[in-house]
Amino acid sequence: MASPNDIRKGTVINLDGQLWAVASFQRVSPGKGSSFVRTRIKSLSSGKLVEHNFKSAENLTYEDVGYKKMQYIFADDNTLTFMDGNTFEQVMIGRDMVGDDTKYLKEGLECTVVMHDDKAIAMELPLKIQYTVKQTDPAVAGNTASGNVLKDAVTDNGLNIRVPIFIKEGDEVMISSETGDYVERIAK
Amino acid sequence: MLLKEDLVLRAQLWNDVRTSIHHFFASRGYLNVETPLIVRSPGMEPNLDPVGVEVKLLDGVSHRGGLITSPEYSMKKLLGAGLEKIYTLTPVFRNVENMGERWSVEFTMLEWYQQGQDYEACMQETEELVNSILVTTPSSSPLAGGEATHWPRISYTESFNKYFGFYPHEATTEFVGEVARKYNYDISKYNSVALAVADLFQWHIMPRLESEFPRFFLKEYPVAEAALAQKNPDGRSAQRFEAYVNGLEICNGFTELVDPVEQRARFMAEAEERRRAGKEVFPIDEELLNGLASVRSPSFGNALGVDRLVMLKAGVKNIDAIHLFPPSQRF
Q: Which residues of B touch A33 (CB under 8 A)?
């Protein structure tokens, strides 16, 4: 028995004998009501994706899964391919299980691949990912006015982000993969 | 450590927000007060976990206390002593929080109180304060949305009735059971109908409100979810509100309950709930109860999370992105 608070991407939950893998989740702690976990889960038998709320106090049964560090290599229409850097073993994960996280991927990025029954079912991104800023407009005088502190930028893998005005093309920046926010500039 | 440009930018952002807040309240005749951080009774709410501390005095005697989860008790004592309009900007501490994203064990709270006014006046003031601070947020920011105009006031109890066909105060095990069957929830997991009502609201109505309104107030809470607020005359709801800006809850305000007898009963119930949950039980703050009798009715109070306001102003959703010392990297 386990708590919904332990849910991660790729957690496999046994609900009345049916196996569901967590595609995405969000913990919600309302000021007074009981906290819960809002999830999108995918049936491992039918492939159907549904939304489901788990109360934090609920007892759940999880199936055993394994976690493997693997590098992202490439994508095609329906799948994303990852490779084990030591054994060169390759696995594929459906785009529907990765969802919006796909935009953070770049070649060579080390991710955590979730394995169930020798099959890759999901992947977790690192919490923070380093990118090179490929395109951003120079800071314009006057833009430093109170509050107007972010501007648009595009990273080396085509991700659209917002960065502080002092960021220049070629700078290395750290981005949160949870919210897409700029976290910090990295010294070169 | 962050690099210099990041540190300067974040410090400036906080300075701007703090300056705006002080200016706003000074121009409305509020007195800025400071309240203690280490107290004997840091908070009784069963859902909060104060950070406990040991205070040692020179005479060798140790005192058990805690860091405040909110300056509320001290603020209400000042009201009891006759102060009419007060505000404070203070660090507060809460254990067992998710670190990162929008939570931190330590954050900055703005609390303000006014005697002789109810929560409608407080909502008006909150709206004006937040609009004045977010006015310079760039329109291209993903969190900036919303005009600096009147925010809709959404009634919790009315929207609940509209959606489910009954009011929270009418909720019975049968009503809630019917809804639970319809949506395939296991209702046996609930100890009380009130908790089920709260979850139904959070799961079914809240996401709709958040996607429809960039800025809004949720008001007229079920009495069971607003034990420290004055009841509305119809008895269906209580005068509690929360403000939401781009899906982020930023404050929680009341027309305050100022009845010391009711407050004592509530504290005792909360202490019992804490005991049952195996949590540390702090002593009831008698100085607060003594003072409450002198607070006029109505009086409003509001607690606003300043970190979240700074996040909105910066146009970010991650609390790490506004701090010089990012919370998720502290422990």
A: 195, 198-199, 201-202, 225
Non-local (6+) Cβ contacts of A110 within 8 A are A69, A70, A71, A85, A126
B252 CB neighbours in chain A (<8 A) are: 31
Give ipTM to 2 decimals. Answer: 0.72
**Each residue of B43-97: pLDDT tens digit?**
888 878 899 999 999 899 999 999 999 999 999 999 999 999 999 999 999 986 6
Average pLDDT over every residue of B194-201 = 85
Chain B CB within 8 Å of residue A31 CB:
yes
Q: Per DSSP, what are the bridge partners of residue B300?
A: B114, B255
User: Using CA atoms, how far apart are residues B21 and B88, in angstroms rounded to an integer?
Assistant: 10
Instruction: Flag whether pLDDT at A146 surpasses 70.
Output: no
Contact predicate A130/A18, CB 8 Å: no
* Strands, sheet with B85-93, edge to edge from the N-terminal-most edge strand: B31-32, B85-93, B106-115, B299-305, B248-255, B237-245, B215-222, B153-155
Least Cα separation, residue A125 to chain B (angstroms): 15
Q: Which is more confidently placed, B148 or B149?
A: B149
In angstroms, the CA B123 to CA B241 distance is 8
3-state secondary structure of B49: coil
Q: Determine, for residues A150 and B198 on separate chains, whether the beta-carbon distance falls below 8 Å.
A: no
pTM of structure: 0.85
Report the DSSP pairing between strands A66-75 and A79-83: antiparallel
Task: Show residues of chain B in contact with A180, CB under 8 Å.
Answer: 317
Cβ-defined contact of A29 to B321 (cutoff 8 Å):
no
Residue from A25, A21, A114, A123 nearest A62 by CA: A21
- For B327, half-sphere exposure in the C-beta direction (CA atoms, 13 angstrom radius) is 21
Q: Do A146 and B138 count as a contact with CB atoms less than 8 A apart? A: no
Determine which helix (DSSP H) or strand (DSSP E) holds A95, and give its type and residue range.
helix A95-98
Phi, psi of B35 (to 5 degrees): -125, 155
For tokens 């109360």, the residue is A55
Q: How far apart are CA A181 and CA A169, in angstroms?
A: 18
Residue A15 identity: L
- Cβ atoms of B34 and B90 within 8 Å: the answer is yes
Say yes or no for a CB contact (<8 Å) between B9 and A166: yes
> A22-26, A33-37, A41-45, B214-218: which range is least confident on average?
A33-37
Q: Give the chain B residue nearest A51 (alpha carbons).
A: B203
% of chain A with per-residue pLDDT over 70: 92
Could you tell me the two tokens for B88?
Answer: 């404070």
Query: CB of B206 within 8 A of CB of B156?
Result: no
A118 Cα to chain B: minimum distance (Å): 32
If you average pLDDT over every residue of chain B, what do you get? 89
User: Max CA-CA distance within chain B?
Assistant: 64
